[in-house]
Amino acid sequence: MADHSLPPGSWASSEASRAVMLGNRGRDTSPELALRRALHRLGYRYRVDHPPIPELRRRADLVFTRRRVAVFVDGCYWHGCPQHYGEPSTNAEYWRSKIARNRERDADTDARLRQAGWTPVRIWEHESVDDAVVKVACALDAPG
Ligand SMILES: [Zn+2]
User: Fold this and answer.
1) InterPro entries of this UniProt entry (predicted)?
2) Is 6 among the domain residues?
3) DSSP code at position 74
4) Taking all residues of the chain, what is their mean pLDDT, rounded to a whole number?
5) How far is the CA of 127 from the centre of ligand 1 (A)?
6) Which terminus of the chain has a smaller tally of CB atoms within 10 A, N or C?
């Protein structure tokens, strides 16, 4: 999970960007819920908000323990989606480094999971449920 603490001062210059940031905080955001529902309907069973590897101390949004697949639904803002991340006009330096740290941590998490024999699946929150289901299903069906 990303660190969602906010910087001091007036960091959100527009109501729109503020709404995006607030909407991306925390769990049970609607894209993740929609994906969970779709997978469940298809008969998939998984753990929710679960650490794939306990010693890693990082949770995945959906975890398929037996198949060793860890799914992360990444917020477009916090994880720096190339399509939707727009740099705020205030505190730009703060946000640039914060998003960069989040992205580094995402990459580090993926690398550690792969080393441990897991398959990380990254899904942007803007992706359609159908696309997300295909990504997860492909990871689950892959050999190994
Ligand atoms: Zn996006």
Assistant:
1) DNA_mismatch_endonuc_vsr, Restrct_endonuc-II-like
2) no
3) E
4) 85
5) 7
6) C
Query: How many Å apart are CA 85 and CA 87, to the nearest integer?
Result: 7
Distance 54 CA to ligand 1 centre (A): 29
What was the pLDDT predicted at 2? 46
CA of 16 to the centre of ligand 1 (A): 15
Q: Which two tokens stand for residue 66?
A: 């037996």
The band of 120, judged by pLDDT with boundaries at 50, 70 and 90, is very high
In the chain, the number of structural domains is: 1
Whether the pLDDT of residue 42 is over 80: the answer is: yes
CATH of the domain at 92: 3.40.960.10
Q: Are 138 and 71 in contact (CB under 8 A)?
A: no
Instruction: Give the structural domain span for 76.
Output: 15-141
- Residue 130 CA to ligand 1 center (angstroms) comes to 16
Query: What separation in Å is there between the alpha carbon of 74 and the centre of ligand 1?
Result: 9
Q: Do the beta carbons of residue 59 and residue 51 sit within 8 Å?
A: yes
- Distance from the CA of 84 to the center of ligand 1, in angstroms? 4
